[in-house]
């Protein structure tokens, strides 16, 4: 038996009360249009995360073009990766107010604009603004909705669905590395970025596919979740079954807010009915007023949900396991990003360019990463397997590989370690699943926004730190060692906090029994 979100005791009250009357399952949950959502998310991962994993190619071009230090030049890639993730909490606010579809379409336009403007860069600092900030924010506005929509459309096969959609990162890293190499060779890096900007407009199409679920469809999903609770209760291992959290988000504030919003709309409706006998101009004004009122209600409602998740009485941060998860994320992502950014330089330093040109090490990571996500997703969906345990085992494997990589100075040795890095990093597909099980579907956008924000901070400072260490020591060894040790600290937090909570829960249960 494994702990579900209800066992953890962190219920945000998003599960509707279901009566004894059976409700027919929605065909779009775990099937139908849900697979179109997976396809959309898969393409988003190719165009955004895949492109960012291939930035090592452009990084070398920028080093030659602008003659700046490795540490300063690496900030361009780090800003793009970091901001994509750091803006997660603010994108959660956009999603609460505008929905995933609108947010993703706007993000696709912004991302394409960032790539195109970067083609006219005159220095590295120009790239900070156009590629790092503009394209980074656009990427974040598409990436988070792509993950959230898969979580909304799937109940019984969430890990597999997230695994399939996030394999786009691996496919994208492989395809975009080859594409950017070809474009840079044939047309130069400036034209390559212009062409990539045009390709990125396809993100708007991906956003258009993100059809939102109606409240009725969401309720039907919860019914399905209740019917298969035993199969879904796999977030934490047996050591964390009885974790109890502090806050429960009350329904009363939300009901009061909804009642106030309804009053506003009803008053507008009465004014509109009473003014039908008026002039055409006054009717136009009433319609405009109604539209503005509805928009205001939507914004207020979205902001209230966003605010309560971060600063309310039942803030996400009252869940200590979730806080440990955030601390882990602060250290984890840079350990995965650093090899992608600096492997081309390491290969050149070890004089292995000839072998790497035949089969690039980054491509090995990308290809195996695809299989890692799917296989780990399938394993995690098995009834007898804990998603949390699979997640931890993959993390231990990855940190071991990061610490081992500097010791490998032959192509074969580096290829083996890179393959293990690619497979174990497949745990990324489990992150949304673990997050959803901790906080529920209703708060997934805000909670996962915090997680990827922490990942973004890690990605932002990791590669420049590695470049700075290289500028001092002329070696990348210490960069990998320090990144690996910090990563291990994050894993220890994931292990210790549930044990502490388990002990506290037992003590509390003992006290209640004595009373």
From TrEMBL:
Its main location: membrane. It comes from the Eukaryota. GO terms for cellular component: membrane. Keywords: Membrane, Transmembrane, Transmembrane helix. It is a multi-pass membrane protein. CDD domains: MFS_MCT14. This is MOT14 protein. It comes from Cardinalis cardinalis (Northern cardinal).
